[in-house]
Amino acid sequence: MAIRKTSGKSKRPVARGKAGRPPRQRHAQAHAAHRAKTAKRGATKSEQKWSHHVMETSDAMDIEHNIFKTGNAQSIAESLKRSSTQSRRRKGSPFQSAMSMLNFYINRAGRNLPKERRDTLQQAKRKLRELFGRAP
């Protein structure tokens, strides 16, 4: 009796689509083509600045220009409180809107935010809670 060697591949038939390749390979090929096409033309303005678009057009609230770039946590908190109480573009309470905008900025900066800047913004959160009479 002869022993037959088998390859490591399974004996199941591979489902093939129109392109004649298994679905996983077609997906990888399409993904690679898309990456090559976008690398040639570069990212468009809308792809680069979607968070800016959200800040400008969402119903979050109207805030002072460059408020998050000031170095003082107290001034950031006071400005956010002032903006949130005066804004007509908010859906929630003034406190919710102000805290939401501060969190949005912190989250969008992500790992690019330096530690001292992150600490200042975290302190601004505490100051904002105090200004609205909320428990820390």
Oligomer: single chain
State mean pLDDT (0 to 100 scale). Answer: 77
For the sheet with most strands, the description reads:
none
Which regions contain 5 or more consecutive residues with pLDDT less than 50? none
Helix run count? 6
Order of helices and strands: HHHHHH
* Share in helix: 55-70%
Apparent shape: elongated
| CA(first)-CA(last) distance | 81 Å
Q: What share of the residues does DSSP label as strand, in percent?
A: under 5%
Rounded Rg: 26 Å
Give the number of DSSP strands. Answer: 0
Q: Which structural class best describes the helix and strand composition? A: mainly alpha
Q: Which helices and strands occur, and which strands form pairs?
A:
Layout: H1 23-41, H2 45-48, H3 50-57, H4 73-86, H5 94-109, H6 115-131
Write out key terms for the chains shown.
about 0% strand; single chain; mainly alpha; about 140 residues
Summarize the structure.
InterPro entries: Phage_RSL1_Orf186 (IPR021513). The chain has 136 residues and is mostly helical.
Question: How would you characterize this protein structure?
Answer:
- The structure is a single chain.
- This protein is mainly alpha-helical and 136 residues long.
- The protein has a domain at 48-131.
- The protein has six helices and no strands.
- Helix 4 packs across helix 6.
- 12% of the residues are buried.
